[in-house]
């Protein structure tokens, strides 16, 4: 993953993919894998960045 973003649950996704998924979300995010809910937007995961 070139620009990995990590969610509060710990799962990481491609920034382009997760930004597209959350483009219309304003307050509550849901992880596409575990369905955890959180209010903090995804952040870049520098440990996975290639």
TrEMBL record:
Q: Which residues form the RING-type domain?
A: 7-35
Highest taxon of the source?
A: Eukaryota
Q: Which InterPro entries match?
A: Znf_RING, Znf_RING/FYVE/PHD, Znf_RING_CS
Keywords (alphabetical) are:
Metal-binding, Zinc, Zinc-finger
Q: Which SUPFAM superfamilies match?
A: RING/U-box (SSF57850)
Query: What Pfam families does the entry give?
Result: zf-C3HC4_4
| Gene3D superfamilies membership | Zinc/RING finger domain, C3HC4 (zinc finger)
- Which molecular function terms from Gene Ontology are attached? zinc ion binding
Tell me which PROSITE patterns the record gives: ZF_RING_1, ZF_RING_2
This protein's name: RING-type domain-containing protein
Species this chain originates from: Wuchereria bancrofti
